[in-house]
Each structure stands twice: as C-alpha cells, then as structure tokens.
UniProtKB/TrEMBL annotation:
The keyword Cell inner membrane does not apply. Residues 196-318 form the Peptidase M20 dimerisation domain. This is Succinyl-diaminopimelate desuccinylase. SUPFAM superfamilies: Bacterial exopeptidase dimerisation domain, Zn-dependent exopeptidases. One of its GO terms (molecular function) is hydrolase activity. Keywords: Amino-acid biosynthesis, Cobalt, Hydrolase, Metal-binding, Zinc. Belongs to the peptidase M20A family. The keyword ATP-binding does not apply.
Length: 423
C-alpha cells in the first residue's frame, strides 16, 4: 500500500514546487505581520476542494493584533468515514525580516536545480507545502480512512506565537480530546525528530543617569557607562558561568547544549528619528536600555535564571556610585520535551525508516517553537517537530529548501497517516 502512496507523492512534484512558490511569494513579514489574511485565504482555497472544512480565526487582543495588522489563523479539518484519532500538521505562516546579503530575490521563490530560494522556504513554508501534499495524496489514495486530519497555518511563531498557536490552544483547538497527534514541520532535517526545545527568558534592563551638557559630563551621570559596567559584569561573571552548564537534552547544534545569553540590542541616549538628518544634541544620556535573550536548560529553574541576573545588578548597585537600574520581563518560555516513546515519536520514527532506510536521530531545538503552547496551554504532550529543510539555513540570506527533501518528508508524513488512520 505504501508504494502507491509514494508514487502519488512523487507525481505531485510540480504541484509541490508551485505551492511552495505561491506561499513564499506572499511576504508575510513579522514584524509587523503582513499578508496574514491573504495566506490564510490561499490555504483555504487550496484545501477546500479536498473536503477540508476551514475556519479563519483572528486572535483579537493578542500581542501585535491591530486593525492594520490583524493576527489571522486558519485551521482546516477533514473527517474520515468513522471516528478515530486526529493527526494535526501545524505550520506558522510568518517569516522574519529579509536582512542583508541576499544574491536572489527574497520573495521570488526561484527554482534552481533541486532548490527553491526565498525567505521562508526553509522556515517553514516548504514544510507547510509538504504536509499539504502528504495529506492530499493520502486522502486520494485512502478515501475510507478513519479519524481526522487537520492542517493549520498560524501567526506569529517568530515573535512568540501568542497571536497564533497560543490563542488557538486557549480556545481548545489543541485539547487532547480533540487532537491526539501534532506534527510541526519545522526545518530540523528530514532524518531527525525534534522532541522539544530549551527555555527562554527575555528581559529589558534599563540603567539610569542624569542628563547634562555633553561638554560638561561631570555635571551629569552617563547611563551608557553604567550599562557598560553591566556588560563587563556579564563578561567577567555570567558568561563564564553559563559555559559550565550542559543539558542532557539532545539539543543541536552541540554548542547549544550549554546555557546561553544573547545581548539582543542596546540603545542609550536620544531616540533615533528616521527622517532627521542633522547632528545629535550634546547631551549626557540619562537612560540606556539593553534587551537580553537568555536560553536556559531543563535542568535550570526559571526563578534561579532570573535571580542570577538580578543578583548581579544588585551587586553593581551596592558597589558602583550612583548606579540604578530597572528590569522588565518581556517573555518567558519554559523548556518542553516529548518522551521518545510517545506515540507520534515512535510512528514517525518507523515512517522515516520506511522512507529513508535508516533510524532517525533525536534532537531538541536550540530555540523554541510552538510546541511550548501545545504542551503548556493545550496540555497535549504528544507533539514533535519534523519537516524538511536544514536548520542552519533558517533566518539566513539566500535561504532555500530542497525539493527532494520536501518530497521525502511528505512521504514520511503520508506513511505516518497510513499507520495512524488506516483501519
């Protein structure tokens, strides 16, 4: 039975390419959240002819949602001939900024040999297209399947997922009595199963000073210098401590098995005005802000992670004249990990062996993805990331996805549907 499904998927190669190109050519940039409605409508128009019932759901009130940039999501569901389990493929529809260094049109979706180039090809519109082809071919091959198939396109994964999967999970769309298996086609390579991800704590630290004329800085107090002391304390104390901590989770790449801290941005002094072309005023800055991105391990407690930074800042306040600070939490994500013997894991592992002739590698992601909301809010612990694409290409210039990789991943997804939904 599998050979005929595989042949059907191979025959859909040109359709897979065209679908991927159509998705990539919609520049669903986040921030700010462009073209979400359009891509949801594209998915609705694509899936409805195969018998899917589609809902378009706006996450009103979610972070980022506005009348100008509404947070739209689509969930498509197709019931089988008899009750059974539901397999859900979830893909995010947003892509990150283009950035510099491209040698191809970021939204041209150019096909060159076996590769499609463009922002979002790898992360993760190629995976979305592969899941659609897998589901359509499975339905055509086995119209009498049991249970249900769902495909969703959700907003804002790149900025936390609160206008997407988190909102849908709060509405009950990922409750275990409605959905039993979730596969997120993130680009973790076609021969690997991603079981989960590290935790993350984002915060903004502000150091405060006193404004004065820049020719007489001794009459003021430079907030940027105070932030320099914070950064030096990070270099001397925090970064060395983080390198000593390592997780037992199979995080890839290897260096991400340590605790990490990224200084996401630093800004001090006057705001930068987009249309202003004059010279800056000679002021001592009275405020400096730094955003930090702390990735922590399942072995670390969140309160200790946060407390470690606050203790460092309090120590500076005690020792450094006129030092003062404020800290604002931006986001918290706890680590998530699906058991290796969970049903979706073992089923996808068997499918990889059938398609690729090898056992999969089991990995965890260095960054988080929407499994966090399915786990914590939906209370569904039978969720993995599996999809085509090379992880290291995500967010990079000249991002691409391989057509053969998408076809192979579609076969793995189709084989998984055979194992879970055929009587």
């Amino acid at each position: 039975m599998t050979d005929s499904l595989f042949a059907r998927i191979d025959a859909a190669r040109d359709d897979l390419i065209a679908l991927t190109q159509a998705l990539v050519r919609l520049p669903t940039l986040n921030p700010p959240g462009r073209h979400y409605r359009e891509i949801c409508e594209l998915l609705q128009q694509r899936l409805a002819p195969s018998g899917f019932t589609c809902e378009l759901i706006r996450a009103e009130g979610a972070p980022g949602d506005s009348d100008r940039y509404p947070r739209w999501n689509v969930i498509a569901r197709r019931e089988g001939t008899r009750p059974g389990q539901c397999v859900h493929f979830n893909s995010h529809i947003d892509v990150v900024e283009v950035g510099n260094g491209w040698t191809r049109d970021p939204f041209g979706a150019e096909l060159d040999g076996d590769r499609i180039y463009g922002r979002g090809t790898c992360d993760m519109k190629g995976g979305l297209a592969a899941s659609i082809i897998a589901a359509e071919c499975f339905i055509a091959e086995y119209p009498e399947y049991v249970g249900a198939i769902e495909i969703s396109g959700t907003a804002d994964e790149e900025t936390g997922g609160y206008g997407g999967v988190a909102h849908l999970a709060q509405l009950g769309y990922f409750s275990p009595d409605r959905v039993q298996h979730v596969i997120i086609p993130e680009p973790l390579n076609k021969d690997r199963i991603c079981l989960g991800h590290r935790g993350a704590w984002w915060a903004e630290i502000e150091t405060r000073g006193e404004i004065a004329h820049g020719s007489m800085p001794f009459l003021g107090d430079c907030a940027v210098r105070h932030m320099g002391a914070v950064m030096q304390a990070f270099e001397d104390r925090l970064f060395p401590a983080l390198t000593t901590r390592e997780t037992a989770m199979p995080v890839t790449p290897e260096a991400a098995r340590q605790s990490t801290l990224n200084i996401n941005s630093v800004h001090g002094g006057e705001p930068e005005l987009e249309d202003f072309t004059g010279l800056p005023a000679p002021n001592v800055p009275d405020s400096c802000r730094m955003v930090i991105d702390r990735r922590f391990l399942v072995e670390e407690a969140y309160d200790e992670v946060r407390g470690e930074v606050i203790a460092l800042l309090d120590d500076l306040k005690a020792r450094r004249p006129r030092f003062d600070y404020a800290i604002r939490d931006i986001n918290r994500i706890d680590p998530s990990m699906t058991a290796q013997d969970a049903p979706v894991v073992t089923t996808v592992a068997e499918a990889i062996a059938d398609v690729l002739g090898q056992a999969p590698d089991y990995v965890a992601s260095p960054g988080s993805y929407d499994q966090k909301h399915i786990d914590r809010i939906g209370r569904l612990q039978n969720c993995i990331a599996y999809g085509p694409g090379v992880l290291e290409l995500a967010h990079k210039p000249d991002e691409w996805v391989g057509v053969t990789d998408m076809l192979d991943s579609a076969k793995v997804m189709g084989r998984t549907l055979e194992k879970l939904l055929l009587p």
